[in-house]
Amino acid sequence: MNKVLAEYISICSQFRKDGLSKPERKQRHAMLSEWTKNIHTDEIPTMLELCEFRDCYGELCYNNYFIKSIIIPVVAADFENNGIDGIKFLFSCFRGHDRLYNNANSPLSIFCDAIGYKYNPIQLADLVLDVEPENLDVLNFKYYSLKSYLEFSLHEIPSGILDGMNGVSVSAILDMLHIVDEFQYLSERLSLNDDSALIADCRKFYSAYENYLKNLDSFKNFADYLNKNGIEYEVYSNTYYYE
């Protein structure tokens, strides 16, 4: 095994996975910090070695020291040479970690930050799918990412619709409906969940909100618009999930 990877495994094996005390966390931090300082460029693992490591020690891929000192340099070098194997590796790190698709500490998010968001995660996903349209790691990522976006867009019903963290504008509605179309395609292709209610609600409320925004003077608020037009809705809560 690559020397640097073996040293990393040796350090991690000295600590249990969860429930470390503060002194233990400090000790691990010090050991990993020293480990990163001693990594030489010619010791960085190859992409093949990194993939073999992921297959055997996938849980260890989520340590920030490892991501920034090993994963990012390997992936960046491949990407700079117009390769996509490194990008595919980033998506493969989500295997068994569905809840981490939108985590800012994932290898994918940290890589995007490292390149100054020249590409965002969805754009990187599309780069891979242009070459490998059947790549399941990437399809799953895109499915869950779009689903999270759509669910979040509705969670303030009946106060309004969100586009990310901001209220949606009339000009954004068409793009959001295209996202719904793309999500429906992925949902039907992957058959992971029954997303019909979410898809129907997005289309219903997006169109309603567009019409509301075009007629603001006629209604007190969006709830008033929905009520006067006989459009049924659930009073929003902090969650608006469809599972």
Average pLDDT confidence is 92
- Kindly estimate the percentage of residues that lie in beta strands according to DSSP: under 5%
Q: Would you tell me the structural class of the helices and strands?
A: mainly alpha
- Categorize the overall geometry: elongated
Rg computed from alpha carbons, rounded to a whole number of angstroms:
22 Å
Secondary-structure blueprint:
Elements: H1 3-12, H2 22-37, H3 47-57, H4 64-80, H5 85-92, H6 107-114, H7 121-131, H8 136-154, E1 162-163, E2 166-167, H9 170-190, H10 196-213, H11 222-228
Antiparallel strand pairs: 1-2
Helix pairs in contact: 1-2, 4-5, 4-6, 7-8, 8-9, 8-10, 9-10
Overview of the molecule:
This protein has 243 residues and is mainly alpha-helical. The protein has 2 domains: 3-133; 138-228. Helix content is 60%, strand content 2%. It has 11 helices and 2 strands, in the order ααααααααββααα. The protein has helices at 3-12, 22-37, 47-57, 64-80, 85-92, 107-114, 121-131, 136-154, 170-190, 196-213, 222-228, and strands spanning 162-163, 166-167. A two-stranded antiparallel ribbon has the order 1-2. The longest helix is centred in the C-terminal third of the chain and has 21 residues, at 170-190. It is elongated, with a radius of gyration of 22 Å. The mean pLDDT is 92.
